[in-house]
Amino acid sequence: MTRFRLLHKSSTCAARCGELSTLHGPIHTPVFMPVGTQATVKGVLPEELEALGARIILGNTYHLFIRPGHELIRSLGGLHAFMHWQRPILTDSGGFQIFSLRELARITEQGAEFRSHLDGSRLFLSPEDAIHVQEALGSDIMMVLDTCIPYPAGREEAARATALTGRWAARCKAALSGTGQLLFGIVQGGMYPDLRRESANELVETGFDGYALGGLSVGEPKELMLEMLEATVPHLPADHPVYLMGVGTPEDLVEGVYRGVDMFDCVMPTRNARNGMLFTSRGRLVIKNARYREDPRPVDEECTCYTCRHFSRAYLRHLFQSREILASQLNSIHNLHYYCALMAAMRRAIAADRFDDFRRRFYAQREVPA
Amino acid sequence: MTRFRLLHKSSTCAARCGELSTLHGPIHTPVFMPVGTQATVKGVLPEELEALGARIILGNTYHLFIRPGHELIRSLGGLHAFMHWQRPILTDSGGFQIFSLRELARITEQGAEFRSHLDGSRLFLSPEDAIHVQEALGSDIMMVLDTCIPYPAGREEAARATALTGRWAARCKAALSGTGQLLFGIVQGGMYPDLRRESANELVETGFDGYALGGLSVGEPKELMLEMLEATVPHLPADHPVYLMGVGTPEDLVEGVYRGVDMFDCVMPTRNARNGMLFTSRGRLVIKNARYREDPRPVDEECTCYTCRHFSRAYLRHLFQSREILASQLNSIHNLHYYCALMAAMRRAIAADRFDDFRRRFYAQREVPA
C-alpha cells in the first residue's frame, strides 16, 4: 500500500504534485524540508517555521543519538513533543554524518563503528539500531542506514558500498516494529548510472514507502548530479515519493522537480542566512555589502515574509555587522520563506501544467542566469 | 507641566503607581525596560517583546552613534521605524558607556573626548551633541549627558564630577529643539549623601521631565546603594518619575520600588539568559545543571511565558549544551517575561495597597532569601 497520492503531472516533463500521508498529517509535494539537526531549526521558533510555510522538517539521527540521546527524547514524548513541532518530521539514518567522520568511522557488514565528534567515545550503529533509534524519536519518515560513497570513487568501491546499502536496507525493513512510521530506501551507486539503476531495482524489490537518492551533491559537477538523477528516477515507481537528499540551491530544486523529485532538504538556507547571504527572486544578496548601508528597501521587494514586511536592508546590514543574534533569526526566516515559497510556486505551476514556463521565467528573473 | 500622573501610593512605604505620557503612548510605572543596545533586544523579535509584556525599551546612544550612526537612523525614519518597535523608547546619553571606556576617554568642561571601541577613531560628544543625537534617534525619553564617578572615589573627585554633571544637564536642556521628546536629568554624587542631595536640588531647580539616579550598582555594597536611594528620592518632586539606571536583580527591583523608584533597566535578564541562568519565582536556575537532564517540567511552573508553556527544562538544557541560538532566544523570552511580570505584580500590589505584603511573600517564596 502506498501512502503517496499523485495529484498532478506535467505534460512536458517529469514534474509532479502529490500528497504523502504521515502520522502527523499530509504533506504536499514537491516540498522542501528545513533542517533541524539538533532538535531545532537554528534560530527559528516552531511557530515561525509554521508561519513561513514549512510543513515538514528534518532531524538528524546521528546528532540526536549522541546528544541528548534517543531514549531521553522517547521518555519526553518523542521528538515532536520535545521540540514543540506537531507537523511531520523526517529523520535521516545517520549514515551520511558517520560517513563524514571519515577516519573516525569504520564500516563492517554488521554496521558502522564510529567515535562521537563530541567526546571521542566509541559508538556502534547497525541498520537495526538505526530503526530502533528513529522509532524512539518517533519521526514520521525514517531513512534506512546507508553507506555513502566519496567522490570520486572507483567502480569497485562504489559497487561494494552499494551492495552493502542494499543488504542494510533489507535489514532495516525487517527490523520495523509496526509503529506506522514510513521507511524510505536510499539509492546509492556513486556516479555510475548502471550501479544507480541496479540499486534502485534492488530497493524497489525490497519495497519501501519512498525512495531517496543519496551520495549526490558531494563535490561532483552539477551536470553529473543531474545525469545521475535522470539515470535513477525512471527506475523508481511513479506512485512513490522521490527524495533528493541534502540538495541544494534554488536552481537545484527547480532542476530536481523538473526531473521528478518530490522532496528536498538542505542546510543552505539557514547556514547561508547566518553568514549573511540572502536568497531573492533576482539572485543572491550579500547583506554586509556597503551598498546596502542606507538602503531602505526590503531584502526582496516581491517577498511577503516577516523579515521583508518589517525590516530594511540597512537594518539587516547593521544587525549583521553588529554580530547580533537577531541577524541570524531574521535572515533565516527570510531564506526559509524563500525556499518554501519557491516550492509552493512550483506546486501551483505544476497543477496548472505550466511548469516549463515557470522554469523559464525563474531563470529569466535572475541577474545571473544559471 | 508634568507628563507624569500619580495613580496610587502605598500607605506604608514609598512605592507608587503612575502613568507617564510619551510621544508613543503611555507607560505604566513601576516599569522595567529591556535593554536594546544596538537597536535590538538581543535574541528577541519586537512582537515577542510585546507579547512578553515589555512596554518601553532602552537604546544606547553611544553604540548607535558609533554604528550605524544617528543620521542614518534619522534618514530611515528614526529608531522606532528602524527596529520595528512602535512603543516608547528611552535612550541613555552615552555618558556611562564613555565612562566605561576609561583610558580611552577624556572629560573636559566642553564634553567627552573618546575613542571608538570598534576602530579606535577619535570622537567627541558635548551635552548639546548628546541631545542632537537623541533627537535624531527620535526616542521618547532622552537622558542628559552625565559624568559618572567610579567606586570608590574621593569626595573632591565626586564633587567635581557632580558639579560638571549639573552644568551639562542645564546645557542639555538649553539645547532642546522642541520635538516633544522628554528629557530626564541624572543625579550623581558618588556615595556621598549630601552630594546626592545637592545634585538632586540643582537638577530640580533646572527642571526636567523625570529624574534618574546614575552611578549606582557600580561595585558598591548593596546597602550603600539603598542608602543613596533613600538619601535622594525624598528630594525629588513626587509628581515626576524616578529612574534607577542600570539596576538590577529582581531583589533590587523590589527594594527600589519600595523606596519610590518608578523605572529600571538592566542587561541582566538577557545577558544571564544567554549564559543559561534563568529567573524563577523560587530563585535562580542554572539550566546546564545535570539535574535537569531529564526534567520534563517547565523552567517555572508558575510562569505563563511562551518558553514555559511549550518547552521542558530537559529541552532547554539540550539547546544550551548544544550551543543552539534557540537557547538564547527561549531563555531571553523567559527572563524578560519574569522581569515584566514581576513589575506588573508590583503595580497590582501597590494599587491594592498591599505592597508590604507582596514584598514579604516575594522573599518567602525564594529558596534562598535575599
Describe this protein's structure.
Two copies of one chain form a homodimer. Helix content of chain A is 41%, strand content 18%. With 370 residues, chain A is α/β, with parallel strands linked by helices. Chain A folds into two domains: 4-265, TIM Barrel (Alpha-Beta Barrel), CATH 3.20.20.105; 273-364, no CATH class. In chain A, the strands form four sheets. In chain A, strands 4-15-14-13-12-11-7-6-5 form a nine-stranded parallel β-sheet. In chain A, helix 7 (155-174) runs parallel beside helix 8 (193-206), helix 10 (250-258) packs antiparallel against helix 15 and helix 11 (268-274) packs antiparallel against helix 14 (325-351). The longest helix of chain A has 27 residues, at 325-351. The model of chain A has no long low-confidence stretch (mean pLDDT 96). The A-B interface holds A 38-40, 42-46, 67-68, 72, 75-76, 82-84, 293-294, 296, 310-312, 314-315, 317-319, 321-322, 324-326, 328-329 and B 38-40, 42-46, 67-68, 72, 75-76, 82-84, 293-294, 296, 310-312, 314-315, 317-319, 321-322, 324-326, 328-329.
Oligomer: homodimer
According to DSSP, the number of beta strands of chain A is 17
Task: Please state the overall shape of chain A, judged from the principal axes of the Cα atoms.
Answer: globular
> Biggest sheet of chain A, in brief?
9 strands, parallel
Structural class of chain A: alpha/beta
Mean model confidence by pLDDT of chain A: 96
Task: Please give the order of strands in the largest beta sheet of chain A.
Answer: 4-15-14-13-12-11-7-6-5
Question: According to CATH, what is the topology of the largest domain in chain A?
Answer: TIM Barrel
Kindly report the name of the CATH homologous superfamily of the largest domain in chain A: Queuine tRNA-ribosyltransferase-like
How many domains of chain A?
A: 2
Query: Architecture of the largest domain in chain A, CATH level 2?
Result: Alpha-Beta Barrel
User: What top-tier CATH class of the largest domain in chain A fits best?
Assistant: Alpha Beta
Q: Termini of chain A, distance in Å?
A: 40 Å
Can you count the helices of chain A? 15
